[in-house]
Every structure is written in structure tokens, then in C-alpha cells.
Design brief:
Length: about 1400
């Protein structure tokens, strides 16, 4: 480290336990005191410093959770910056309305003009600001510009005189010949701006002030104030000053000059009605360098004179005299004298203000050598100025001495005999930094603000080349002191860290912080590694010591932890804990041990011994916890594990010995790990309870295995009187294998699931072509036997499985179950036979499939026979297929009740160059209606003519034979013809036809057709033609159909179109339908529209192109509007509209209007709800006459529309009736016409029920009754109650008297008179002696009568006075009640 630079690196951490030393007595004494945090709390503080970076972190924990945090970060690279954040969750602090978080960052960059960025966050409030420079590229170092931006926002200031949001912006630009200053201030929604520009090319100064403050405007200050001053370029040119305030303009200009001396005369011109005064002024320069300015004004005979003398060299001196008798200057004394002098040598200045009877003098000086020194002297004997808060006398001095390694500063102030003295010193050396601050004062204001009269602060830090460092912090305020010391020492063998805290601060005492706290940590390297931690918090101590040894053969760790805290001991932490752990040797020969002691008691002892070479493993574990109290017995657990895993005989043993029982496990195995020979194993498990010789649970097992024999047994004795035995024997000899298992037990709990004796025998025999197996299970007389065989035959295989049993548990199954399967694969046939026995039932299945390789040998045949069905003796199916003749047949036959029944299906197919023919036939006995069904399809196509014909014939025979023929002719790619011929025995009708004479389509989006429908013999023919399109331009779907009957004038058509006219700005989808019958028509049109902030729906119906009914609905923002209207060709146009709007400022409005002639609108009703200033305002209006007129008009229009519809319905009924009469001999047209005729009759019946229409429902609805009757009556009653309440509040005592009369049944005046009479009678009884005296009787009676009269008069006057005062006090309530509700019935 060089001598010119100092670098301090270090980190220290402090863990403080708050309130840890408080014993029970102390907690009882402090129980009534409320603390900010829990008595058991901890604080973690860390400080790190490296180079020019310093970081401080502090975290406060209480009640197991974080209560607060503080972070401070200071750096100087790349510029000076300060970042701090505070976070707390303390409820007591929250009640003081302090924010839970705050962060004030500050950044400062150097340069000609420093740049400062600062920010402060306090909960929901924040303050942002920056002060910086803005320079141009040409004059970067000479012509800087200064920018200031400050913004703040605090919602907590709502309702106060301070603004919630504040924004301040400022700009100062200096160029070679121009200075510009701009600033703006915005407070909430009000702002003010100032702009000043000074130019030196032509002496010129201009400025503008603009504001929008309501308070300033209410005081008469205009929003815009401008000023402009122009100086003369030369001595013979004129100058002027212009000031514009709103509509008022004031001009001042130079009118003349004297060439002999520098003398200027000025005159004032104004067009302001408020200021009409004569002003004369002059300025001249004396030969000695003194300047004199004089001004005289005359306003309505009131004069004012001002004279100023100024001399800039060699010392600045200014004298001014003001004499006036103007009322506008009544705030100033009539005579004032001002003197100002300054000396440039020692930078002294003096100001003297002398008025009529008092004077004010102030002098000061500044010296820069040998440091900065400042002095100030102030005397004032003016009462007026003293009342403004100015002191009578004040003397102040200060100094600042700076050197590369030290700073010294002091301030001394004496104000009206009260003193303030501060001293600040700082010193820096190569390995030490010191700082000292001292403050003393006797000023009442500072004492009231909480500043102690004597306070000091000292900080000292040291760092050494070997890495050792120390830090000390000492502070005092009166008799309260706080000190913090930290020291870190580095040596060759150890590193030691010490921290000490002491204080006498009452606030910390109330929080539970002990007066002293010591912490020490040490890390040693002498013998292994030693870590030692010690802490002392008041009288309580705690420590931790760890000793680590690490050698190639031995690794050991010892640890001790101790404390003397009664609180920790009460919550379960022992006073002393000791532990030991060691590992000796390598992994092939390892010994380890572990030991743990608590308060001198050995809690845990363990040991491990491993020898890989000998194949030996031993483990020892002993656990002995301390009893919870002295009355309970001590528990103990000992465990020993021994394993021998090498050698011909391998063994393991486990011994677990708790306090009340013992568990032992032993096992050994021999012959394992070698090929061949005999392998044998034994296993023993015993569980013995304390004080008993016989084991409570015992398991013994033995087993032997050779190449041809298996033997084993296991005996389990869970109790003294029960046992379980298992014996296994097995033999292996070619080609036979046997296995026998015997189970015998006397355990009652197992008898439910397992019998007391069970024998299992299994046997497997294997040869070259077969495998046979046998499984037999015996339990007393119960037997279960299963055997099976799988054998290979010459061309397949044979499989047999048989199961027999006599067990009651298997009663749902038959006693005998058998399955037999045979499969044979021959030259070109396959045979499978399967038989099954299920008790007394037998089932058989046989299948044969033949597939000759050539057609000469026969057809492909599949034959299936099934026997064993409950109701059928047999079922047979034969399928035969001929590829040569393309003929397939299926025959299904069965016998039921001795009769043979069959189902037969036959299909054939033939093909030539231009002809395809297909035939299908089906015969079955299931339905007499369709006992025989046939289909014949013939297709002919010509490539030369590019045409095709398709004919399909369908017939079936039954009760009613039917023949259906379909002919399709395709003339070209776009035109075709289709006909259907149906013949059946229906009355006199022999057949019917329907032909599509023309079909034209492009197979994409267009289709046109013409269809002829008729019935034979000749009947009226129906023609149906149409045109259809899909997805063509804006049309999504379009269809148009025409129906006509030859010989009738009425023709019908139907049109439907679905279009999409959407664009990028919105969506528009429309649906249009038109129905025409003869000379009348019905059009229906609906549209759905959608824009980014609006959507709507329109529905319109037009009858005979003259009458139109429409319904519109739109949703825009928070408003829903709907309109329903009617229009006809005679000029009638009416509509009814309703609107509901919800505003963003919590208001709601509903309006219902009617418009006649589609021009003038009349309101039927309106309702508005508004929330403002914590008030709910409701306004409602309506007109019953207009509503009744609208209802009558709706009834008239609906009746007219119903009348027109009834005429159309009767016309349709007439047409359908004529059609039925013309086809009286044909049943089919009559059935086709009866359906629409029935629909028209239902429509006619609905029109006849006029009392169930919309109007009748509305007239009978509860909503109309509420709006027209219930709601006005309720509002009228509410208005009467409001007026009555206002009337009663005008005479409140009279109201109370009326209430008293209603409750008591007696007037208040009569009750008062009775009380006065009773009181008078009691007074007469008291004055009985005076009344009996003849001399005093007359005087006493007169006094009693006068007293009663005076009491009545006083009571009446008091009553009237109290009622008047009470009525005045309740006038605000009466006015509020009057403004609360208003109702005007119409």
C-alpha cells in the first residue's frame, strides 16, 4: 500500500439477542410496558468496505419472522452515489402512519457543473429529482447549461393543503451573449411557468409568467404577466421598459439626455385603469464615479420620493432614502433610510436600515486564508421586524480548514443570549481514520425539537498490513451513551474477532436491549483447527468450541457448547453439550467411534469396526436419554451387530436390548458361493420380555439343497400355546419332477383363512411329443385336482384340461370342468374342433375352411357347426364364393322346436366396357312385410358422347308389394336429368313420378335446378326451380326457390341470403329472407355489427313492400340503446327508444322516448342515479298521459298488422283447399297439403287470442303498475314526510311537546302549571310560620305570587329562546333535508 492511497478491506457481523437476559422477575416488572418488538428478538448487522465502496446491511427478527431491514450502499466509481432502503413490519410504527418501506438513492458526478440524481421512496410516496448539465459540442467547457427536474407524488396528502403530485422543471442556459432561464411547476392539476431571456447584442431583457392556479385567479392575478426591457445601444439612443399584466400595460421610456454629464430622464406611460399616476425619474453620474437615481410619483395629490446613491469603486456603497404619504405604501414607514457598504479586500459587508424610530444593522465578513472563515453580526430594535420572528441580536462565526489528510470545522452562534457551538474534525493517516463531532447549545427551539444540549460522536478505524483491523464508534447525548467496538487480529497461528457493544440509552432499555454485549470468535491452526465462539449478553453467556484433527491415519472432531440462559434452558436447550467423533484407519481396516453427552450425561455411544481382509463387521450403538423428571425411569437402548461375510461358513447376529425387552437374530449359511455340492442354512429369531425365561415370539428355519433333492422346514411360535409349521420336500429325476408342501398350524387368527392342515402335491411328466401336469390339494376330506396335457399330432396338436373339486368354497363352480381342442391343417383345408364340459352341460364347435388352388377343383367354402344351445339343437352356416362367376351365397340354417329355418343371401356382379350390372337378393323368415327383397343396379356410360345413365330398381314382396325405379341421365358436366317412378297398390293410384329436368352447376359455388313432381294417373303437376350459391364475394350463402302449378295464377318464391360485409375496421354479417305468394310478400332482414368499441344488432320486417317494422340495439362503451319502430307507405312513421348508460364516475341514467313522424321526440320516462361528494342523488320523471297514448297507438298498429296477416292466411287456405279438391282421387297430394293447412289453422287460432299479446301482458304486468301507481304514490308520501320533517324542525320544542302529549295524554303546559302549583304549595308549607305572622302574611303571599309569575315568565322566555336557538342550530339539517329529496307530481 502506497503512502498516497488508503484501502480498507474488512467485514464484521454482529448478532444481538434482545431481551435474552430478562429473567422471570424482570418480565413481571416490565409486563405493563408496551414494546415495539417482541422481548425475544435478534438483529444481524454487517458492514463491508473496500476501496471506495461501503455497504451496510441490517436485519431485525422477532417472533420467528423478519420485522425490519436496512440497506445502505455508498460508492464513488464511476461517480459518487448513495442508495439506501428501509423496510419494517412493526405494528407500533405502522400506527404512527410511517410507511413500511423507503429508499433514498443519490448519485453525484463531477465536472464543471456537478450532476446529481436523487430519489426518495416512502411507502406509496416518492420524490425524484436530478440536477445536471447539458453542453453543446462547440462550447462544451465554456457554455454549460444546467437542468433541474423534481417530481413527487403522495396519495396520503389527499384532503390536505399540500398537493398530492408535484413536478418542478428548470433550465438555465448560458451562451456567449445570451442567458436563458426556464422553469415550470405543476401541483396536481394546476401549473405555473416562468421564462427569462437576456441578450447582450442589443441590451434586452424579457420575461413571461403563466399560471393556472385557481387561488391566484380568485385574488385577481391575471394568468399571463409579461415584461420587456430594452437598453440603449449607444449614449444617444433611447431605452424602454414594458410590463403587461392581463389587459393592463405599463411603459417606461427614456425621454431626454444631457450630453455634458451622464444624465438620463425617464417617464412612465400606462393604459391601466387601476394605475393612473405621474412618475418622473432621473439617473446621472458624478465625476467621482458615483451614480444617483431619483424618482418622484404623484397619485391624486399623494406623493412619494425615492433617491438612491451608489458608488462601485473603490468600495461598494449604496444609500437610499424613501419619503412618502401614499396610502398604497402604508405598510412601509413614511421615512426610510438604507445604507449598504462592502469592502473587496477582506470581503466585508454592512447593511443599515434606519426607519422613523428604530434601526437594523447587519455586518459580515468572509476570509479565505488560512481557510474559509465567516463572521456575522446582527442588531435590531424594530418591534415590527421582531414580531415577524427576527431576533434582537445575533452573532455568528464559522471556519473550515481543509488539508489532504484532515478536516477541521466549527460553528459558533449566539442569538439573544442563547449559544450554539459545533466542532467537526476528521483525520486520515496511512493506517488510521478518525472523525469527531461535538454539539452544545442552549437554544429553546432546538431543545423543543428534541436535539440534546450536549452531544458528541467519535469514529475511529485502523487497518494493518497483516490484515488486522479495528473499528470503534462512540456517541453520547446528555447522560445517555452508546459505543460499539470491533477488532480483528490476524496471527500466524490464529485469527481472532471481537465485538463489544455498550449503552445507557433509555429507548434501547425499553426495547429490552441489554446494556452490554460481547462477542468473540477465534480460529486457530496450532494443532489441527480450532474454532471458538463466545458471546455475553448482560449476565448471560454462551459459547461454542470445535477442535478438528486431520492426519493420514486418524481424523477426530471434538465439540463443546455451553450457556447459562435460563430462558433457553427452560425451552429445552441443555446447559452443556459435548460431542466426540473419530475415524481411524483406511476403508479396508476401519475403526470409528462417536459420543454425545448432555449436561454430563452420556446420551449416545456408537462404534464401528470393519476388517475387509478377515470379512468381519461389528457395530455397537448405545442410546440412553435422560428422563423428563425424577419420578420416571431412565430409558436405555443397546444394539450390537456382528457380520462374518467371508469363509466357508458365513453368519450374522443382531442383538437389540431396550429397557423392557430383548430381540436376538442369528443366521448362518454354508456351501454358498461354490458350484455343486450341498448348500445348507439356518435362521433363528427370538423376542424375550423382561423378567421371563421363555421367548414371547420365536422363529426357527432350516433348509438343505442338493442337485436332486430339496428339503426345508420352518416353525413359528407366536405364543406359548400356538405354533405354525411348514415342511417342503422336492425331487428332480428325468423325466419326472415332484414337489410336496405340508402346512400344520394351531393359530386361531389364521383358522379363518387357512385350515389347520394342508397338503399340496404337484407332478410334471415330459416326453418328446407331450407334456402332462398334475396339481392336487388336500385338506381333510376336501380335495382339488387339476390335470392337463398338450400333445403334438401328425398335422396339428391336441390339448386337454380337466378340473375336479369337492370344496364347499368353490360351490359356484361345477365339480367337473373340462376343455378339449383339436386342430388339423390339411392340403388346402383347415379343421378345428373344440368341446367343453361345464358340469352337466356340453358345448361343441366345429369349423372347416376349404380353398382349392384352382377353379376346377371347386369354390371357396366355409362351414361352421355349433351345438349345445339351450333352445336350438344345432346351428349351421355355409358360405360359398365363386370367383369365376362373381357369385356369393350365404346360407344360415337352424332347427328350432323340430322345424328347419334358413336365411339365404345371394349377390352377383357383371362388368363390360360401358355397362356395370349388380344384383342383390335376400330371403328370411323374420318379417312377413319384407320376406323377399331385391335390388338391381344398371349403369351405362359413353366416353364418346360424354354422357351416362344410371338405373336403380328396388322391389320387395310382402303385404303391399312396392317397386321403385330411379333413372339418372347426365347430359354434360353441368346439365343432367333425374326421374323417380314409384308403383304400389294404393287405392286407384298406380304410380307416381318426380323428374329433375334440368341441373346446372360448376361444382364449386353455384347450382341451378328445375324439378317436376306428379302423380299418375294425370293430376296437377308441381314445378320447383331454384338457384343456389355459396361463398361468392360477400355472400356466404344464397338460395332462391320458385314453386308454380300450371293453370294457377298464384306463384310462390322464397329467397335466403347470408352476407359478410366485414372490413378491417369492423364486422358486419347480414341475413336476408323474402317470401312471396302471389301479389303479397314478406321480407325479414337482420344484421350484426361489431366495431372495436361498439356493437349492434338490427332486425327489420317488411310486408308487401309498404309496411316496415324494425328493432335496433347498440352497445357502445357503458351505454345500451334500443329502438323499435313502424313505417308504412302513407307517411306514418313512429318509433320507441330506450337507453341505459353507466358512467365512469359512478352514475347511471335511463331514458325512454317516443317519436311521432320520426321527427320530434317526447320523453315517456327517465331515471338517473349519481354519486357525488359522498351523496346518492336520484332523479326520476315520467308522464302517464304520454305512456297511455303510446299504448293506444301500439294497440292500433298491432291490430292493423294482424288484420293484414289474417288476409294472407285466408288466401293461403283458399289455395290449399283448391289444390286438395283438384286431387280428390289421389291420397298423396292430399296428405302433402294437409300439413301446411294445419299450420295455417294454428296461426289463425293464435291471432284470434288477442288478449294474450304483448300489449295485454304489459298492461297486466306488475312493472307497469309499479311505474304508474305504486312508485308515484310512494314518492308522494316520501315528499309529504320530508315537508313534515322540515316543518317540525322549524319548531323543534313544539314537536317534542306534541310527542309528549301523544305519549302521556296531557299537554306540556298543563303539566308545567301543575308542577308550579305543587312547588308553590310546598313553598307555602315551608313558609307556614311567616304566613301565620300577621305582619308578614301579606308580604309572604305577595312574594309567593310574584315568584310564581316570575317563574312562568322566565320559563316562557327560556322556552322561546331555546326554541329559536335550537331551530337555528337545526337549520342546516332542515336545508340538507330539503335538498336531499325533491318530487313534483304531474
Amino acid at each position: 500500500m502506497s503512502s498516497k492511497s488508503l484501502r480498507f478491506e474488512g467485514i464484521f457481523a454482529i448478532a444481538v439477542m434482545l431481551g435474552g437476559g430478562a429473567g422471570p422477575k424482570r418480565r413481571q416488572e416490565d409486563g405493563s410496558r408496551m414494546t415495539l418488538i417482541h422481548p425475544q428478538a435478534s438483529a444481524n448487522i454487517s458492514v463491508s468496505h473496500s476501496g471506495c465502496v461501503t455497504k451496510l446491511n441490517a436485519v431485525l427478527h422477532a417472533e420467528g419472522a423478519q420485522k425490519g431491514a436496512l440497506t445502505l450502499f455508498i460508492t464513488c466509481n464511476p461517480h459518487h452515489s448513495l442508495h439506501a432502503s428501509v423496510l419494517h413490519f412493526i405494528n407500533a410504527v405502522k400506527t404512527l402512519r410511517f410507511p413500511t418501506s423507503g429508499s433514498p438513492p443519490l448519485n453525484v458526478s463531477g465536472g464543471y457543473l456537478p450532476q446529481v440524481d436523487f430519489s426518495l421512496d416512502l411507502g406509496q410516496c416518492y420524490l425524484r429529482g436530478n440536477v445536471g448539465k447539458m453542453t453543446s459540442s462547440q462550447t462544451e467547457a465554456v457554455q454549460p447549461s444546467l437542468i433541474v427536474n423534481v417530481t413527487s407524488h403522495c396519495p396520503l396528502l389527499q384532503g390536505t393543503i399540500l398537493p398530492q403530485s408535484l413536478a418542478l422543471q428548470g433550465l438555465l442556459s448560458v451562451t456567449s451573449c445570451q442567458v436563458t432561464m426556464k422553469s415550470s411547476l405543476r401541483a396536481d392539476d394546476e401549473d405555473v411557468s416562468l421564462e427569462l431571456i437576456q441578450s447582450c447584442m442589443t441590451p434586452h431583457l424579457s420575461g413571461t409568467i403563466t399560471h393556472s392556479f385557481h387561488g391566484l385567479k380568485s385574488q385577481g392575478l391575471p394568468q399571463i404577466i409579461s415584461m420587456e426591457a430594452m437598453g440603449p445601444k449607444g449614449s444617444d439612443q433611447a431605452g424602454a421598459v414594458i410590463i403587461k399584466i392581463g389587459r393592463c400595460k405599463i411603459r417606461a421610456r427614456r425621454t431626454s439626455q444631457d450630453r455634458r454629464i451622464a444624465h438620463w430622464l425617464w417617464a412612465l406611460e400606462t393604459d391601466c385603469p387601476v394605475l393612473q399616476a405621474h412618475v418622473n425619474g432621473s439617473v446621472w453620474k458624478h465625476p467621482g464615479g458615483m451614480w444617483t437615481a431619483a424618482m418622484e410619483t404623484d397619485l391624486k395629490g399623494r406623493r412619494a420620493f425615492l433617491r438612491v446613491d451608489a458608488k462601485p469603486q473603490p468600495e461598494l456603497s449604496v444609500e437610499a432614502v424613501l419619503d412618502h404619504d401614499s396610502p398604497a405604501l402604508r405598510a412601509l414607514p413614511k421615512s426610510i433610510k438604507l445604507r449598504l457598504s462592502s469592502s473587496s479586500g477582506v470581503h466585508d459587508a454592512e447593511v443599515l436600515v434606519q426607519m422613523e424610530e428604530c434601526s437594523l444593522r447587519a455586518s459580515g465578513g468572509v476570509m479565505s486564508e488560512p481557510g474559509l472563515q465567516v463572521s456575522l453580526l446582527y442588531n435590531n430594535n424594530c418591534t415590527t421586524i421582531q414580531e415577524l420572528g427576527s431576533p434582537n441580536s445575533m452573532q455568528a462565526s464559522g471556519s473550515l480548514l481543509l488539508s489532504p489528510a484532515s478536516v477541521y470545522s466549527h460553528i459558533f452562534i449566539v442569538k439573544d443570549g442563547k449559544e450554539l457551538h459545533t466542532v467537526l474534525t476528521a483525520r486520515q493517516t496511512e493506517d488510521q481514520n478518525e472523525a469527531f463531532l461535538n454539539l452544545k447549545h442552549s437554544m429553546p427551539l432546538l431543545r423543543k425539537l428534541g436535539l440534546p444540549v450536549n452531544a458528541s460522536l467519535a469514529i475511529n478505524s485502523e487497518s494493518h498490513n497483516n490484515g488486522s483491523c479495528s473499528f470503534a464508534f462512540n456517541s453520547s447525548a446528555g447522560n445517555q451513551k452508546f459505543s460499539q467496538e470491533f477488532k480483528m487480529e490476524k496471527k500466524l497461528e490464529n485469527v481472532r474477532v471481537q465485538s463489544q457493544l455498550k449503552h445507557t440509552v433509555n429507548y434501547l432499555k425499553n426495547l429490552g436491549v441489554p446494556r452490554s454485549y460481547n462477542f468473540q470468535a477465534e480460529l486457530g491452526f496450532a494443532e489441527g483447527k480450532i474454532v471458538s465462539l463466545q458471546s455475553q449478553c448482560g449476565d448471560q453467556q454462551a459459547g461454542l468450541r470445535l477442535h478438528l484433527k486431520s492426519f493420514p491415519v486418524l481424523k477426530e472432531m471434538r465439540g463443546t457448547m455451553w450457556h447459562n440462559s435460563s430462558w433457553l434452558h427452560h425451552h429445552g436447550l441443555p446447559l452443556k453439550i459435548e460431542g466426540l467423533g473419530s475415524i481411524k484407519g483406511a476403508l479396508s481396516q476401519l475403526q470409528s467411534r462417536a459420543q454425545l453427552s448432555v449436561d454430563g450425561h452420556k446420551l449416545l455411544i456408537s462404534g464401528l469396526n470393519v476388517s475387509v481382509a478377515d470379512g468381519h463387521l461389528a457395530v455397537l450403538l448405545s442410546y440412553s436419554p435422560t428422563p423428563l423428571n425424577q419420578t420416571r425411569t431412565q430409558h436405555r437402548l443397546d444394539t450390537v451387530l456382528t457380520v462374518q461375510f467371508k469363509g466357508p461358513l458365513r453368519s450374522t447376529s443382531l442383538d437389540i436390548h431396550p429397557q423392557d425387552w430383548r430381540f436376538r437374530l442369528a443366521g448362518e449359511a454354508g456351501g454358498w458361493g461354490t458350484r455343486g455340492g450341498t448348500k445348507e442354512a439356518r435362521f433363528t429369531l427370538r423376542h424375550t420380555e423382561h423378567g421371563k425365561t421363555s421367548p414371547a415370539f420365536q422363529v426357527e428355519a432350516w433348509g438343505r439343497l442338493t442337485e436332486s433333492e430339496l428339503k426345508g422346514s420352518m416353525v413359528v411360535n407366536p405364543e406359548l400355546s400356538s405354533s405354525f409349521a411348514l415342511i417342503v420336500q422336492g425331487h428332480n429325476s428325468t423325466p419326472r419332477k415332484d414337489l410336496m408342501v405340508n402346512v400344520v398350524h394351531s393359530i386361531p387368527q389364521m383358522l379363518v383363512y387357512l385350515p389347520s392342515q394342508l397338503n399340496l402335491r404337484s407332478q410334471v411328466n415330459q416326453s418328446q411329443s407331450s407334456v402332462a401336469a398334475l396339481v392336487e390339494l388336500l385338506s381333510g376330506r376336501k380335495k382339488l385336482c387339476a390335470q392337463g396335457e398338450l400333445a403334438a399330432i401328425e398335422s396339428g396338436y391336441r390339448q386337454t384340461v380337466e378340473v375336479k373339486h369337492s370344496c364347499p368354497q368353490l360351490k359356484p363352480l361345477p365339480r367337473t370342468i373340462a376343455v378339449r381342442t383339436v386342430y388339423e391343417a390339411r392340403t388346402w383345408s383347415y379343421l378345428i374342433q373344440q368341446a367343453a364340459v361345464w358340469g352337466s352341460h356340453e358345448f361343441s364347435l366345429s369349423g372347416l375352411y376349404s380353398s382349392p388352388p384352382s377353379l376346377e377343383l371347386g369354390n371357396q367354402t366355409l362351414m361352421v357347426q355349433i351345438g349345445g344351445f339351450p333352445r336350438l339343437s344345432s346351428l349351421e352356416m355355409v358360405h360359398e364364393s365363386s370367383l369365376h362367376g362373381r357369385l356369393d351365397s350365404i346360407l344360415l340354417g337352424w332347427k328350432r322346436q323340430g322345424q328347419v329355418e334358413q336365411v339365404r343371401a345371394l349377390s352377383s356382379w357383371s362388368h363390360s366396357e360401358e355397362t356395370n350390372e349388380t344384383k342383390l337378393e335376400l330371403k328370411h323368415p323374420f318379417s312377413s312385410m319384407l320376406s323377399q327383397l331385391s335390388i338391381h343396379i344398371l349403369s351405362h356410360s359413353s366416353q364418346r358422347k360424354r354422357s351416362s345413365r344410371h338405373r336403380t330398381h328396388l322391389s320387395w314382396s310382402g303385404v303391399v308389394p312396392v317397386n321403385i325405379t330411379l333413372n339418372l341421365n347426365k347430359l354434360n358436366s353441368n346439365v343432367g336429368r333425374a326421374c323417380v317412378l314409384v308403383s304400389a297398390q294404393w287405392m286407384a293410384v298406380s304410380s307416381g313420378r318426380g323428374c329433375v329436368s334440368m341441373v346446372q352447376t360448376n361444382l364449386r359455388d353455384h347450382l341451378e335446378h328445375r324439378v317436376e313432381l306428379g302423380v299418375c294417373p294425370e293430376q296437377p303437376t308441381l314445378w320447383w326451380s331454384g338457384s343456389h350459391r355459396v361463398i361468392s364475394g360477400e355472400e356466404l350463402f344464397y338460395t332462391e326457390s320458385h314453386l308454380s302449378v300450371p293453370g294457377q295464377l298464384h306463384q310462390s318464391s322464397f329467397t335466403l341470403a347470408l352476407t359478410n360485409s366485414s372490413t378491417a375496421q369492423g364486422t358486419n354479417i347480414s341475413l336476408y329472407t323474402q317470401s312471396m305468394v302471389g301479389n303479397w310478400s314478406l321480407e325479414l332482414e337482420s344484421s350484426a355489427l361489431s366495431w372495436p368499441h361498439r356493437s349492434g344488432l338490427q332486425v327489420q320486417a317488411t310486408l308487401d313492400h309498404s309496411q316496415k317494422i324494425w328493432l335496433n340495439g347498440t352497445l357502445e362503451g357503458h351505454c345500451l340503446r334500443t329502438t323499435a319502430g313502424y313505417m308504412n307507405g302513407s307517411g306514418i312513421c313512429e318509433d320507441l327508444s330506450a337507453a341505459v348508460c353507466a358512467g365512469n364516475n359512478h352514475n347511471l341514467r335511463m331514458d325512454v322516448q317516443r317519436r311521432e313522424g320520426c321527427r320530434e321526440s317526447k320523453t315517456l320516462g327517465s331515471l338517473s342515479l349519481e354519486i357525488a361528494n359522498q351523496r346518492l342523488i336520484m332523479k326520476a320523471s315520467g308522464c302517464l298521459e304520454r305512456l297511455t297514448a303510446a299504448e293506444e297507438r301500439f294497440h292500433s298498429l298491432s291490430s292493423q298488422i294482424q288484420k293484414d296477416l289474417m288476409e294472407r292466411i285466408k288466401t293461403l287456405q283458399h289455395l290449399l283447399t283448391e289444390t286438395i279438391k283438384q286431387s280428390a282421387d289421389s291420397r298423396l297430394p292430399q296428405e302433402w297439403s294437409s300439413v301446411p293447412l294445419l299450420v295455417l289453422k294454428q296461426a289463425e287460432a293464435l291471432h284470434a287470442l288477442q288478449d294474450r299479446g304483448l300489449l295485454s301482458l304489459w298492461l297486466r304486468s306488475s312493472l307497469r303498475h309499479t311505474l304508474t301507481s305504486s312508485l308515484p304514490n310512494f314518492l308522494g308520501q316520501l315528499q309529504q314526510a320530508s315537508l313534515l320533517g322540515q316543518q317540525e324542525l322549524r319548531r323543534p320544542l313544539a314537536t317534542l311537546a306534541g310527542v309528549y302529549q301523544d305519549v302521556k295524554g296531557q299537554r306540556l303546559e298543563a303539566a308545567w302549571k301543575e308542577a308550579v302549583v305543587m312547588w308553590t304549595e310546598r313553598l307555602v308549607d315551608v313558609l307556614r310560620a311567616e304566613l301565620e305572622n300577621p305582619n308578614l302574611r301579606t308580604l309572604s303571599l305577595a312574594g309567593v305570587i310574584a315568584l310564581r309569575a316570575a317563574l312562568d315568565v322566565a320559563c316562557q322566555q327560556t322556552y322561546h329562546w331555546a326554541e329559536t336557538r335550537l331551530a337555528m342550530a337545526l337549520s342546516g339539517v332542515r336545508k340538507r333535508l330539503a335538498s336531499l329529496y325533491k318530487f313534483i307530481p304531474r
